[in-house]
UniProtKB/TrEMBL annotation:
InterPro entries: Metallo-B-lactamas, Mito_Persulfide_Diox, POD-like_MBL-fold, Rhodanese-like_dom, Rhodanese-like_dom_sf, RibonucZ/Hydroxyglut_hydro. Residues 440-469 are annotated as: Disordered. Residues 264-356, 369-452 form the Rhodanese domain. It comes from Kitasatospora cinereorecta. This is Rhodanese-like domain-containing protein. It comes from the Bacteria.
Length: 469
């Protein structure tokens, strides 16, 4: 029995494989405590925690599992882990109950990437029932190959081509169980919203498998890749050395306006997690508005320098919101100090000033005309382009703010990123209006061809993942 554990906020899935009273957890998130508690209630002995590769998009929960259960951490021998683990190479096997797990070298997404076949222990020669494909074969896409830097991108892309063909050669009904999926920035192209599939379906429908020529695959894979979130470059080194074991979800407490003011003055970033309209109407000067939704931490990781301590302004009930914010943030190594007790009302009650900026809808912008303002499209993948807009990925807005003059409006897929971008510009002293309702597709229209002001040309696999916010 294989149970997916989906972390929607990062577009990833972990897996719990159960055979008899034994279990293995594949690619666990750092906040894996609920899964461990479930295993305890069910009387399961977690034998192994299995890693497909050194993760770039989140901090691994492997050491959390080991600390809580005594499980053996197993992963690719070439991963370079700095903690005790069982290194695995091609054809190495692990026995879990009646199941056999066999390593299959699949470099490409990372150099050490390893997939794992799920076999019947009594009949290991029989076709595999499933394959854990990590960041290699995804549903409707494949893992990007540029995360180790430009010096290795071509090498890894060619390796990915052959790894994908190797996985595609498995029997049609083999279940495909990837770690990365819809919403993950580890994808080379937008994929399906489905989290799992079969080899047969992917061989037929996955654009990464329908390109038969290696040179064509290389050319297509390296076109239109969005910039990786800034925090990514910090994840792999921490995962190799081993993230600090927490043991439980940290608890943060309330802060007075004076304490928040002091924290902001001494290097902390204030993140306002309320709704976009409430943030725009009045917020702490210099704070960033990032709604506490599924992509909260991922957006923090795009615009707040790594390891910067955070002070939060939260929606009510603040205690519940604090727990959710802390959970998302610890997955990518960020730490919140506390939250503003009493919210914006407590801040203004002390006579402290607030900042604000205008908001609008796509109907407002369409009525005015996109050519009458400096319009920033801050989607990660601006395909097709909004006519007249400058395509500026959200992570570049702060460093490029000086480039934009006049009346600046921000737009994205659904308003979330546009609000974050507006907060960055507002902090830089630039008058800005955020399009908080509607998105780029409303401005493009169903019969409008792509514009010419967006960045790189669209890749071949676009258009199957939900629009970003």
């Amino acid at each position: 029995m294989i149970e997916p554990i989906v972390t929607t906020s990062l577009g990833d899935s972990s897996y719990l494989l159960v055979s008899g009273d034994e279990a293995v957890i594949v690619d666990p998130q750092r906040d894996c405590w609920e899964v461990l508690a479930d295993c305890h209630r069910r009387g399961l002995h977690v034998r192994y925690v299995l890693e497909t590769h050194v993760h770039n998009d989140y901090l691994s929960g492997a050491l959390e599992v080991r600390e809580a259960t005594g499980a053996t951490v197993a992963g690719p021998a070439a991963a370079g882990y700095g903690f005790a683990h069982l290194p695995l190479v091609e054809d190495d096997e692990l026995a879990v109950g009646d199941t056999l797990i066999r390593a299959l070298a699949t470099p490409g997404h990372t150099a050490e990437h390893t997939a794992y076949l799920v076999l019947d222990r009594e009949h290991p020669e029989a076709p595999p029932g499933a394959v854990f494909t990590g960041g290699s074969l995804m549903v409707g896409a494949s893992g990007r190959t540029d995360l180790l830097g430009p010096g290795r991108t071509e090498e890894l892309t060619r390796a990915q081509f052959h790894s994908l063909r190797r996985l595609a050669a498995l029997p049609d009904d083999t279940r495909v169980l990837p770690t990365h999926g819809a919403g993950s920035s580890c994808a080379a192209a937008p994929g399906s919203v489905e989290r799992t599939s079969t080899v047969g379906l992917q061989r037929f429908a996955n654009p990464a498998l329908t390109v038969a020529d290696e040179e064509e695959f290389l050319a297509r894979r390296l076109v239109g890749l969005p910039p990786a979130p800034a925090y990514y470059r910090h994840m792999a080194p921490i995962n190799r050395s081993g993230p600090q074991v927490l043991g439980h979800l940290p608890v943060i407490g309330p802060l007075t306006p004076g304490q928040v003011e002091h924290l902001a003055a001494t290097g902390s970033t204030v993140v306002d997690a309320r709704g976009r309209r409430a943030y725009a109407a009045g917020h702490l000067p210099g704070s960033l508005g990032i709604e506490l939704e599924a992509s909260f931490a991922a957006l923090v990781g795009e615009v707040v320098p790594f390891a910067t301590p955070l002070a939060l302004v939260l929606p009510e009930p603040a205690v519940d919101a604090a727990a959710e914010a802390v959970r998302q943030l610890l997955r990518i190594g960020y730490r919140a100090t506390g939250w503003l007790d009493g919210g914006i009302e407590a801040w203004t009650a002390t006579g402290r000033p607030t900042a604000s900026f205008a908001t609008a809808t796509t109907l407002d912008l369409a009525a005015r005309g996109t050519g009458t303002v400096t319009l920033l499209d801050v989607r990660t993948r601006p395909e097709p382009a909004v006519p007249g807009a400058h395509a500026v990925p959200l992570g570049e807005v702060a460093s490029r703010a000086h480039e934009f003059t006049g009346e600046v409006w921000t737009v994205c897929g659904r308003g979330r990123r546009a609000t974050v971008a507006a907060g960055l510009l507002d902090r830089a002293g630039i008058p800005v209006t955020a399009v908080v309702s509607g998105g780029a597709t409303d401005l493009i229209g169903p019969d409008r061809s792509p514009g010419t002001t967006a960045g790189p040309p669209p890749g071949p696999d676009h258009g199957r993942r939900p629009a970003e916010g």
